Probable magnesium transporter (Actinidia rufa), 334 residues
Amino acid sequence: MYTANLIGFSLAVASSAFIGSSFIIKKKGLQKAGASGPRASSGGYGYLLQPLWWIGMVTMIVGELANFIAYIYAPAVLVTPLGALSIIVRNCEKMGVLGCVLCVVGSTMIVLHAPSEHSISSVEEIWELAIQPAFLLYTASAIAVVLVLVLYCEPRFGQTNIMVYIGICSVIGSLTVMSIKAIGIAIKLTLEGSSQVASFQTWVFAMVAVTCIITQLNYLNKALDTFNTAVVSPIYYAMFTSLTIFASAIMFKDWSGQSASNIASVLCGFITVLSGTMILHSTREPDPLPVADYSSLSPQISWLIRANGEIWQHKDDDELHSEFIGIIRQDHFK
């Protein structure tokens, strides 16, 4: 039990290092692509031609591969919360040190009290877990929520409400983890001599995983391109981790047979990691604003706002009056 959990823990930590780095690299690639063409948030795919974005993508794939293997050895309730360690890669100074300590302490609590993996001998057993009424209800609810967010909320609020893109990523992400977990177990059983390749359930899980990953990456790119990374990451981490733990508890019954103290310790560890995540992001430097060329703007006009909120247009031959307060906001001319 502890050996398998330790292997899963080590792989999850390595995964966090790669994924944390990939966020930074992909963000820079998206910014470069947005400076020379349509942004990802506007439906543009110019970032696919950016080498920097691809370097970040490869780094993320390596991290996700390590994460994938970690799910083979350890339960999702152990592996998923350790994703917070990826944020340490991006910030560990001043108050960030406290955030790092909280993440490490919380992760340690989770490792020490995480449930052991249930013994599964075939992919058919995983399929039986996936089609149990409780998990089917969760899956149907997740799909319904995603459809509402994509078809109704995204066109209206996608550019202004951060919860739209992150909600899609998080809900889909919980299903991604469940299918990845199933594929990982199938691969492990195959390598041990019990081939699962011929089982149609293996390929169903594979198709679900690929579909969810593509959808998740698409909307994560939109979230990163539209909103500040310092805001996206902690909200995404909290929602994705919470939904994944919830989905895993329903499908794999991770808490079955666990004592109340162990469950409470894992939950406290998760809350500690979440607190550390929030502190880490509160100490991050804000993303730099995109540089724009204002050379074509006319210097003849400026806007002033009267103290009572009235708008008045100032011309060259007007004298400034003390009643007016000038606002210098060039980005309003974009």
Summary: The first strand starts at residue 302 and ends at 306. Confidence is low (pLDDT under 50) at residues 290-316, 320-334.
